[in-house]
From TrEMBL:
Belongs to the NAD(P)-dependent epimerase/dehydratase family. Residues 56-70 have a biased composition (Low complexity). Residues 104-341 form the NAD-dependent epimerase/dehydratase domain. Its EC number is 5.1.3.6. It comes from Erythroxylum novogranatense. This is UDP-glucuronate 4-epimerase. It is a multi-pass membrane protein. The chain crosses the membrane at residues 34-53. InterPro entries: Epimerase_deHydtase, NAD(P)-bd_dom_sf. The keyword Amino-acid biosynthesis does not apply. It comes from the Eukaryota.
Amino acid sequence: MFQMKQMSHLDHAPSTPGKFKMEKSYSRLRWHSFTKLTFWSFVFIGLIYILFYRSPSSSPSSTVNPLPSDLSRRSLRTSSWGGPDWEKRVRASSRIRSRNGMSVLVTGAAGFVGTHVSAALKRRGDGVVGLDNFNDYYDPSLKRDRQALLERAGVFIVEGDINDVDLLKKLFEVVRFSHVMHLAAQAGVRYAMQNPGSYVHSNIAGFVNLLEVCKEANPQPAIVWASSSSVYGLNTKVPFSEKDRTDQPASLYAATKKAGEEIAHTYNHIYGLSLTGLRFFTVYGPWGRPDMAYFFFTRDMLKGKSIPIFEAANHGTVARDFTYIDDIVKGCLASLDTAEKSTGSGGKKKGPAQLRVFNLGNTSPVPVTDLVSSLERLLKVKAKRNIMKLPRNGDVQFTHANISLAQRELGYKPSTDLHAGLKKFVRWYLSYYSAGGKKADAR
C-alpha cells in the first residue's frame, strides 16, 4: 500500500526540476525493494530445500533408526505405479456411473476423511481415484484396512506422494479429472515440534506441486482442499467466522495451513484455478485417527491407563467443536457440487475464478471432560483422569465454528451430536480391534 501511494503521488507530480530527484529516489526505492524481495525469495527457496530434501523422516520412530526410515519416506518414485495394467485400473476407478457425475482425484484417500469422502463419492456414481503415500505418522495397517475397504467399493488408491510431480502428471494424462479433493497433509498440532520439516514437505511443498500440475492441465480441475480450524490460532472472538483474523497461528501446523490459504489465493489470482478451502473442526468417528484424543482416550481407558485431561489457566475449561465424520463428508460433497469450473487453460488465466473458504463444524463446543464422561458411559469403564495444565505446544483452549456461510452457500447442516457420534465410534472400535486379534497402536 505504501509503494502504491508513492506511485500515485509521482504520477501527479508537476514537471519541475525537482521531479528528477523524486524519480531518482523512487528508482532507488524500487531497486531496494527488488533486491529485498529477491533476497527473501532465495531464503524461502533455501528453507524449502533444506526441509524438503534434507529434513528427517516424519516417522515418530525416526530417532531410533533414522536412515532406513528416511530413505523409505523419501522414495517418491516407486514401482507401484505405471504400465498398462496400472493405467487400466486407474481408468476403471475413474469411470463415472451417474448422469451428472464427476471424476475426482482424492489425495490422502487412505486417511480418515479421505476414506469416507471417497466411499461417499463412489456410492453416488462419481469416478474416484485415490492417492496416498501410506506414511507411518500413525499405524499404517489402519490405512491399509481403509484401502481394502475402498477397493471392495471399487476405488483404486495409487500409492505415491503428492511431491512426485511425474506421478501427478501421469495421473492427469490418464484421466481428465474434473475435480480434485485434496486431503493429503501432515496432520497433528503437537507432532510439529518433533518434525517440523514434514509439515513444510507435505502441507506447503506438496500443495504447491499439486497446484502446479493442476494449472497446466487442460481442462483445469476445480479444487476443494482441507484447510483447518487451527488457522484461527490465538483468536479470542467466538464463534470463529471466516471473516475473522487468522494471522496469529499457535502452531506450525496452523501456520502451514494458513500458508496454504495464501497459496490458494495466489494460484486463483494468477492462473484462474477454482479453489475452495474447508476449515474442519475436530473431526471424529469410525475409522478415525489414533492420534486424536477421543481415539486414544478409548484405547487407554479400556487398558486401565490414565488419560490426560488438560485445563487452561485458572482451571479454565478446554472445549472443542467436535464434528462427526458424516457431517464433514456432506460438507465436502456439497463443496465439490457447488465448485465452479476453473477459468484457465494450459497455465493461463482467462477470467476471474471462484475462491471460497468455509467453516465445517458442529457449532456446539463440548468440554473435553464431557467427552470423557460420554466415553465412560459407552465403554462402561471409569476413566483415570490425570488433570494437567494445557501445554504450550500449539493446543488452544477452545474452538467454536460459525457455520452460517456454509449453511447459506452449501446447505450444510450438521445433525450428529457428540454422544450419538461417539456411540457409533465405540461400536466400530470394539468391532475393529476385536476382529482377528487386532491391537490398538500403543503410540
